[in-house]
Amino acid sequence: MANDTPQPFVPPGTGWPGDPATAATPVAHSAAEVAALAASAGSLHELAARESVCRACPRLVRWREDVALTRRRSFQHETYWGRPIPGWGDDHAAILILGLAPAAHGGNRTGRVFTGDRSGDWLFASLWRCGLAVQPESVSADDGQRLIGTRTAAAVRCAPPDNKPEPAERDTCAPWLTAELREMSGDLRVVVCLGHFAWQALWPQLGVVGYSLPRPRPVFGHGAEVTVRAADGGDAPPTLTVLGCYHPSQQNTFTGRVTAAMLDNVFSRARELSG
Q1: Overall domain count for the chain
Q2: Is position 83 within any domain?
Q3: Is residue 59 in a domain?
């Protein structure tokens, strides 16, 4: 993946490991096009392909590509992915792990969600200990990592400046998550939300795909557990459990707000609930 002449992003279909897109994959340039392309994808693979080439949010496109061009000093000799990070993992997952957004020098560099940064180091180590991943590390798109009964995604698919998506960007990106939930509906039993942002982003989309939502909205907390039921006449599975988990950010892990045991408790519970 070394490259002496950096590009702003990896063109689809040029051989990046695991790239789901091709040169023919349709590209969304607006919120309306995101909604249309997400709804018509028809499979998780095609959905991931369309997510991975989206250009609907100008601020996020500029940021992710600028980061891919300038790069962090420690990664100066690497090519950056520089595109949206699609959902990734088991195609028949019973567990979905939902985060906020890719890291500028993590997923935006490696092309795989939660891969190549400190948060991912904590996350994948816990998934491995809990029997949900085949190895304890996720460092690149071709490292052999594989998830077991589990899929990962971010509520916003592009790395945002200061790790803070704007509300309009969150809303533009939401149909990708809605479509992912629908495509997973035959298998999905548990959603683990890493952090408050993911928790807040999930609930409206659960309503869209056919769940009756509790009122008031449940409060986020580490270990929070809420079971929702499908609305009458809906196509969603009868029940789905949502678990809250503090995000394994450097700030949280360095201060002890999140420990390895705390992560293991949440993911062990997710595995138990997933059956």
Answers
A1: 1
A2: no
A3: no
* Secondary structure of residue 8 in the 3-state scheme: coil
Residue 1 has pLDDT above 50, yes or no: no
pLDDT of res. 113 = 95
Q: Does residue 246 lie within any of the structural domains?
A: yes
- Measure the CA–CA gap between 57 and 72, rounded to whole angstroms: 23
Identify whether the C-beta of residue 83 lies closer than 8 Å to the C-beta of residue 10: yes
Query: For 160, which DSSP code?
Result: P
Percentage of the chain with pLDDT > 90? 92
Confirm if 88 and 127 have CB atoms less than 8 A apart.
no
Look at phi and psi of residue 233 and say left if phi exceeds 0, alpha if psi is from -120 to 50, else beta: left
pLDDT band of 7, cuts 50, 70, 90: confident
237: domain CATH number? 3.40.470.10
Q: What string of H, E and C letters represents the secondary structure of 45-56?
A: HHHHHHHCCCCC
Sheet arrangement for strand 211-212: 88-89, 150-154, 95-99, 190-194, 239-245, 225-230, 211-212
Displacement of CA 172 from its chain's centroid (Å): 15
In a domain, 118, yes or no: yes
Note down the domain range covering 194. Answer: 89-274
